[in-house]
Amino acid sequence: MLVIDEAQKIVNIGLTLKILYDTFPHIKYLVTGSSSFELNEKVSEPLTGRNWRYLLSPISVGELAKLHTPHEIDESLEDLLLYGSYPEIFRYTNVSEKIQYLKQIEDEYLYRDALAVGSIKHSEKIHSLLRLLAFQIGSPVSYAELATQLGMAQETVKSYIDILEKCFVIFRLGGYKKNLRTEVTRQPKIYFIDLGIRNSIIGQFQTLRDRNDVGSLWENFLITERMKKNQYDNVYRGSYFWRVYTGGEIDYIEDYDGTPHPYEFKWTEKKSAIIHSWQKMYALPITQVSRSNFHQFVI
To answer: Of 85, 97, 98, 127, which is closest to residue 110 (Cα–Cα)?
Structure first.
């Protein structure tokens, strides 16, 4: 096997790999790069039909479950919500070291891919956009409102969000729809791939008992962990949220086998209120996911 790291820095890397593969087909090539967006752009076309891409997400709860008991995972839950699950973060036991590590990622790496593509010249706008998005996780996002707050064109905001998504900083969740007249679908929800980065961007690492955004953190955590689980299990399902103009809303829906499967996320054990608009339209039960049963949802 031939391993090539930081491959995006090599001139004509895509063509070079194509020649190597065609000349020495018995050799396997492992190609990595810290700039995933740039690497993908350079190798996709020359290596069509010759490559297999792997998405390496932050450490999942499912992976932790192979080394830790359910009780130990429950004990580490607050750390996962505060500091995220990049592999390096697990090396540190000191809070100040964890925060310093996340700040280093934010300052040195987070914006590099975004600044390397498109017409983005300064990181200030990207940082301001991410701060606004960090305070809106779990809520539908208005591109027009973001554009007004940032003093930017709406299309520019959309392009920045698209770049940040391709750089694996954030991801969008669209609205589930069957009845276009009553279901709200135009505004997506935006979540962070890693909550440690989200908390670093807004500079908030208080304990959960001192925060007012625990519900949003829990929602972001469960959705990202569910997506990791589905990815590793090779399960392909549509992922959405659901909302109607009259105010009814469901946190997360997976669509498969021709049927929507709804989930409500609760940090506390308080039972979710009955969402009459959902029952009227779909007559399907809603599964509540809380700390008492989240293992079944993400492992």
So the answer is: 127
